[in-house]
Each structure stands twice: as C-alpha cells, then as structure tokens.
Amino acid sequence: MEMKSVIEMLEGEWDLENGFLGKLRQGEFDASGSERLIGILKSIELPSDTSLEKRFVALTWYIPIFLTWQRERFIEGSKDITELDAAINKIEGLVERLLGIP
User: Fold this and answer.
1) Given Cys at both, which of 9, 16, 42, 79 links 74, Cβ 3.0 to 4.6 Å?
2) Percent of the chain scoring above 70 in pLDDT
3) What is the C-alpha separation between 60 and 79, in angstroms, rounded?
4) CB atoms within 10 A of CB 81
5) How confident is the model at residue 79 (pLDDT cuts 50, 70, 90)?
6) Which residue in 24, 49, 38 sits closest to 94, CA to CA?
7) Is the pLDDT of residue 80 over 90?
8) Which range marks the domain in which residue 38 is found?
9) What are 37-46's pLDDT values in tens digits?
10) CB atoms within 10 A of CB 87
11) CA distance 15 to 26
C-alpha cells in the first residue's frame, strides 16, 4: 500500500466523528473502529531499508500513548475496559512491529 494512502487512513482514525481514536477521545469505544485500525496497521509493510515519512511516524507512535491515556479516563469514569485493553495489546504489538523498539 502506498504511504500516502496509509497516512490518509491513519488520519481518518483521528477524526472525531468517524475515527476510532477520535471517538475514543470522546469516551466512546467503537469495536468496529478498533478492528478497522488494527486492519490498517496489519496491512502496512515497510521495507527494512526505508526512511519513514515524518507524518506517518507522528500518526503511529502516538497511538499507544493515547490509548493508555484513554484507559485511565475509562477507569476514572467507571467504564468497562475489557475491550479497550484487548485493543491496546493488539495495537501496541502492531506499532512495535512497524517502528521497532529501542
């Protein structure tokens, strides 16, 4: 998949009305949106010898941090975090696959 398309899809997930991350920011866990984001991340294949676009890195590395913040908000709001925790585990693994770990 072309990097421009990947970036557009990731930006869409930050959209407040329709994106998984945008909805989560507003306290709504969208299970189908979670699966959509997971699908996007799974579909990305990065050659090991490539430089990454700054926008791609910005959109991607921030996701696990953001999810952790939302988890804390869910707990404070007495919301069920079961589905969110499952999504966090899957997404963190996918981001690690893409960007690596220090």
Assistant:
1) 79
2) 100
3) 25
4) 18
5) confident
6) 38
7) no
8) 3-99
9) 999 999 999 8
10) 24
11) 11
How many Cβ atoms from other residues are within 10 Å of residue 86's Cβ? 12
Please name the residues in contact with 40: beta carbons below 8 A apart, sequence gap of 6 or more: 6, 9, 10, 13
- pLDDT at position 98 is 93
10 vs 84: CA distance, rounded Å: 18
The tally of domains found in the chain comes to 1
Give CA separation, 66 vs 26, 44, 45, 49, 84, in Å. 12, 20, 23, 28, 12
DSSP 28-71: ---HHHHHHHHHHHHH----TT-PPPHHHHHHHHHHHHHHHHHH
The alpha carbon dihedral of 48, 10, 63, 67 has a sign of negative
Determine the pLDDT at residue 87: 95
Sign of the CA dihedral running 48, 51, 54, 56: negative
